[in-house]
Amino acid sequence: MAFTIAIDGPAAAGKGTISKAVAAHFGFAHLDTGLLYRAVGAKLLAGVPAIDAALALEAADLEQGDLLRTPEVAQAASKVAAIPEVRAALVDFQRAFARRAGGAVLDGRDIGTVICPNAEAKLFVTASAETRAQRRFAELQDKGLADDFATVLADVKERDDRDMNRADAPLKPAQDAVLIDTSDLSIDQAVQTAITAIDEKRGQSS
Ligand code: C5P
After folding, report:
1. Fewest CB atoms within 10 Å of the CB: 4, 21, 35, 141?
2. Domains of the chain (ranges plus CATH)?
3. What is the pLDDT of residues 86-130, one digit of tens each?
4. Which residue has the least CA distance to atom 21 on ligand 1?
5. Ligand 1 in contact with 44 (CB < 6 A)?
6. What own/partner pairs with CB < 8 Å and gap ≥ 24 does 49-58 have?
7. Nearest protein Cα to ligand 1, atom 10
8. pLDDT tens profile 31-47
9. Largest Cα–Cα distance of the chain, in whole Å?
10. In sequence order, what are the beta bridge partners of 106?
């Protein structure tokens, strides 16, 4: 049976961690849709026009490990993500993934609003810009990719601004999304809050 969990929110709010844990808990497949835009952004940085890159995207393009996790690729991703033709090229793949048998978790910016407006469960995961920048800074330091904190914070704010203010599929909570602010939650608490919210929806849809 198909059951779609849409998890949206800004950069470094904890979506990725929550999505992976939720997918493991329910035995669902997980798609990090940010990787699609990062893969297109990486191609743009390599000189391929963004729309061509989106139309020709292949599974192997998503499997580049930390190469897609750099701040440069993140910025390029948020630039290509503002191009309607790029977004349109990626819709069918995401919708097919969402309706696969056995359940799916998709995390991104527009899953509950545009890609899967009929998702059975929708979460919007957020946290203050400072908290998110602090987490991203620690993550980048672990990978040896760190800029200074002020640069990471500016980067997070710039990406928020572009993602929230673009004309096509801007970042915003779906009307029926459950909001989870992770600023003062541990990872375990955030995951448990998400699972409880989804369990309620599963109860309603069965
Ligand atoms: O989630 P992540 O930080 O990997 O996403 C990179 C960029 O891709 C975001 O800043 C956003 O501009 C874009 N994106 C999007 N829609 C999604 C997922 C990501 O526009 N569903």
Report:
1. 141
2. 4-198 (3.40.50.300)
3. 999 999 999 999 999 999 999 999 999 999 999 999 999 999 999
4. 108
5. no
6. 50/79, 50/80, 50/83, 50/86, 51/83, 51/85, 51/86, 51/89, 53/80, 54/80, 54/85, 54/86, 54/89, 54/90, 55/89, 57/89, 57/90, 57/93
7. 78
8. 999 999 999 999 999 99
9. 49
10. 6, 31
- Kindly state if the Cβ of 4 falls inside 6 Å of ligand 1: no
Q: Are 201 and 120 in contact (CB under 8 A)?
A: yes
Contact criterion met (CB below 8 Å) for 35 and 188 = no
Nearest to 68 by CA among 47, 38, 90, 97: 38
Distance CA 112, CA 7 (A): 7
Residue closest via CA to ligand 1's atom 20 equals 81
Best mutation site among 5, 37, 110 for ligand 1, i.e. most ligand atoms within 8 A of its Cβ? 37
Q: Ligand 1 centroid vs 81 CA: distance in angstroms?
A: 7
Query: 136: Cβ below 6 Å to ligand 1?
Result: no
Q: How far is the CA of 17 from the centre of ligand 1 (A)?
A: 15
Under the banding of pLDDT at 50, 70 and 90, the label for residue 206 is: low
